[in-house]
Amino acid sequence: MTKHTFSGTGVAIVTPFLENGELDKESLENLIAHLVNGGVNYLVVLGTTGENSTLFKEEKQEIFSLVNKFNNGKCILVAGIGGNDTRAVINAFNEFDITGYSAILSVSPYYNKPSSEGLFQHYKAISEASPLPMIMYNVPGRTGMNVNAETTLRIARACKNIIATKEASGSVEQIMQIIKDKPVGFEVISGDDGLTLPLMACGAIGVISVVANAFPKQFSEMVNHCMDGDFASARPIHEKFLPIINSLFAEGSPSGVKAYLNEMGIVKNTFRLPVVGVGAALKEKIKKLMETV
Known about the structure:
This protein is α/β, with parallel strands linked by helices. Helices cover 46% and strands 13% of the residues. An eight-stranded parallel sheet has the order 7-6-5-4-3-2-1-8. Helix 1 (25-37) crosses helix 2, helix 3 (86-95) packs parallel to helix 4 and helix 9 (216-227) packs across helix 10 (231-249). The two termini are 27 Å apart.
């Protein structure tokens, strides 16, 4: 597989909090070291897994800056800046200092339920205003709207600053159509950990992962095998991780992955409402699943 800037394993990092709800800077530094040492290729900061919807603007800026400082140039950085108000997204590009970042990940508008034309015009407007290359993000399970293959391909052809899509539609048929018909210079990245192997077999260049927060080395190993075309070596790792991936989302994300990270002593099992931690039964299941890796 041809190496691309965003090939391999990206990680949608969690945001650690203290028990009083404030940012946990020490745990954030520990997490970045854990991921860098685990050999991941890039970090996505303030995606959905980072609980960005419950962070104030000043806190977001602090996290962007701290991750850049703790990373110290070791991994490529991607800034999560998106929303359902096109003007507000464009304003955010100018308001945040994202020194050290190489791209922006921008989720498709949620709640408004725009038409395909509205989705196209949104991405066209923000791509023209963006100071960095952009990765669009289709996650209908959270936004309530699927960016279908036709619209994604229209955006890819018209918006040259949009270089990839993080696809979490769950529709392998839709994703295969995008891969088949996409223009040169536009790539597809898996947005589902459990579909990473099959999507890379179809031509996706990697994943933006949740599970790699906890298991960066092991999951990166699977992704690297896929990049080498060695799916026979990747498959046993893929199969081993399937029950772990299922547990991550059984009671919502990032609740599941923070439970794993807490067991590892990397971050505290703390959140901002309305997100809460997993229940006692799932927590026990997670402890047992950790023993399998």
